[in-house]
Amino acid sequence: MEGALVTSNFSMSDLYPAKANAAHAPRSRRLSYISPAASSAAAPNPSYRRRKGTSPPPPSAAATATVLTSPPKPVEQQETEEHLVDTSTNNVSATRVTTARTSRPSDAPRSSRPRRRPTASLQAAFCNALEEAINTFVDPPVLRPSVDPRHVLSANFAPVDELPPTPCPVVRGVIPRCLAGGAYIRNGPNPQHLPRGPHHLFDGDGMLHSLLLPTAPDSDPVLCSRYVQTYKYIVERNAGEPVLPNVFSGFHGLAGMARGAVTAARVLTGQMNPMEGVGLANTSLAVFGGRLYALGESDLPYAVRVDPATGEVTTLGRCDFGGRLSMGMTAHPKKDPITGELFAFRYGPMPPFVTYFRS
User: Fold this and answer.
1) Membrane-spanning regions, if any (predicted)?
2) pLDDT given at position 22
3) Looking at residue 134, what is its pLDDT?
């Protein structure tokens, strides 16, 4: 690999200026590929509600990283058929057999955080009132710092907004030619709404940050940040507030049991359908079968795509691999470096208790 140092003197607050004013402390300068040109595309995040007299958390985000050093394959070249489940609505969606030319799940605008909360139905308003009562009277008056979302989701762990494809000029050095046409992508939790009650860092909607490296020496890398369009994300985006409980922090103690009862009421009144999936797709990324997947063990994989021409990140849909996968699988599949085979497994309380995959 060619030796190179690609740096910039700008921090994440330059890229996401909407968050900069909320920081509790000055941000340090950091190495990155980012230029100030990206800052014009960032939008404010108005969806974080003030809770118990507190202000919204400060900027930046943490995420686990996955590096792809080979050029992304265009989805149009795929010929195998898979089941992609449409998650564009809150209703039960039909599973359709489709080729890899399937479009993204929704043609709705990309803005993920509505500025004005939609008007809730009577059932939703009742459940929301119960949630507020739990939040006010059942939750401890003061949460431990390790689970308080106002503390956990602050500083370098605070959520960030989506970012459309944005050119990032190289300030110094050159990008190694062996990486040309590839992409650096990271996946990690990034809550779109301030959680109710305790919060664990493993919870939070999956967001993909993609840096597409140019094929031409005179072109700029393109940065794009998009949420994985999971069923949970879409339901809560339409509601304008948290609706589904989180896996790691949603059912703890008396308040967790009460929120579980509210969740059951939402299911019975048709506000949500857990059969559509409750996962976050926020754990890792994997490439197999010529396709890129966002993984989370609490749900099926979500097929995603990075456009090799524009750098746009698109969610293709929830994938059950031709009906062969009905439950979530490990988010950490392993690839044989010699044969190229990919190995994964899943387990559950119903037979077959353990299922082994090889691709």
Assistant:
1) none
2) 44
3) 87
How far CA 87 is from CA of 52, 110, 233, 295, in Å, comes to: 34, 15, 10, 16
Question: Token pair of 286, please?
Answer: 């994997």
Query: How is residue 217 written in tokens?
Result: 């020496």
pLDDT per residue as tens digits for the range 299-353: 999 999 999 999 999 999 999 888 888 888 999 999 999 998 989 998 888 888 8
pLDDT by residue (tens digit) across 209-264? 999 999 988 899 999 999 999 999 999 999 888 888 777 776 667 888 888 899 89
Q: How far apart are CA 133 and CA 139, in angstroms?
A: 9
User: C-alpha distances in angstroms, 121 versus 260, 271, 273, 278, 306?
Assistant: 20, 9, 16, 21, 37
- For 300, half-sphere exposure in the C-beta direction (CA atoms, 13 angstrom radius) is 27
Residues paired with 186 in a beta bridge: 65, 209
Q: Is 332 annotated as a binding residue?
A: yes
Q: Are strands 64-68 and 342-347 parallel, antiparallel or unpaired?
A: unpaired
